[in-house]
Design a protein that fits this description.
mainly beta, Phosphoenolpyruvate Carboxykinase, domain 3, 31% strand
Length: 208
């Protein structure tokens, strides 16, 4: 796959909830998008994935090369008691998926000015609408803060998508989910001081 510093390929649409087309996609505030070449041109991209939902998948970093070359792997469904219920976890909200529970934060101190910066990387995906079941509510906010709005563009009740998969059928991953963009964010202050991330204070972030 070839990396491209660009906007979305083709006419990308944002869905406020499953099946509800809202508006043309623009990169979220504070994020830089690097396109992953998955089609020869925009026409070819739209013909295959143009009507699919946009979603995001977090990563801890070490999995990036594998995802780029092989696609997303299934994982054991965290809400299920069955070891056979395997899923891929995504969210329509990049801000929800960027939470430290889902996406690693790299902390780096600049040698020239001693300033600390934080870096994040999230995959942008297209998801086959037929593979998306009922959205689940967020699970990060502490009980006393459940009314806090995580993302202004999405309801808290639709922030978690679990795409069911058969672990033995790797082609499922390619048939229903395609990674076509890398979203990167650089934060020049402590994440808690960024207004859009103020909701993190009402979750169990852990150390980062």
């Amino acid at each position: 796959m070839r990396m491209i510093d660009s906007g979305s390929i083709g006419n990308t649409l944002l869905f406020n909830s499953v099946g509800q087309e809202n508006k043309e996609f623009v990169s979220p505030d504070g994020w830089k998008r690097f396109g992953i070449k998955v089609a020869d041109n925009g026409t070819a991209f739209n013909a295959k994935w143009g009507s699919w939902h946009i979603a995001y998948h977090g990563t801890k970093g070490q999995h990036v090369p594998f995802i780029l070359t092989s696609g997303l792997c299934v994982a054991i469904q965290q809400y299920s008691t069955s070891k056979n219920n395997q899923t891929i976890f995504l969210s329509p909200s990049i801000e929800y998926m960027a939470h430290p529970q889902h996406t690693r934060i790299w902390r780096h101190i600049q040698k020239d000015d001693g300033k600390c910066r934080y870096y994040q990387l999230v995959f942008q995906c297209r998801v086959n609408p037929e593979a998306v079941g009922d959205p689940k509510s967020e699970t990060l906010l502490q009980e006393t803060y459940k009314i806090t709005r995580v993302d202004k563009d999405f309801c808290n009740e639709e922030l978690e998508w679990f795409i069911k998969a058969n672990a033995a059928a790797k082609e499922f991953i390619h048939d229903n989910i395609i990674c076509y963009g890398l979203m990167i964010r650089v934060i020049d202050c402590h994440p808690y001081d960024l207004p859009i991330l103020s909701w993190w204070k009402n979750t169990d972030c852990g150390e980062y």
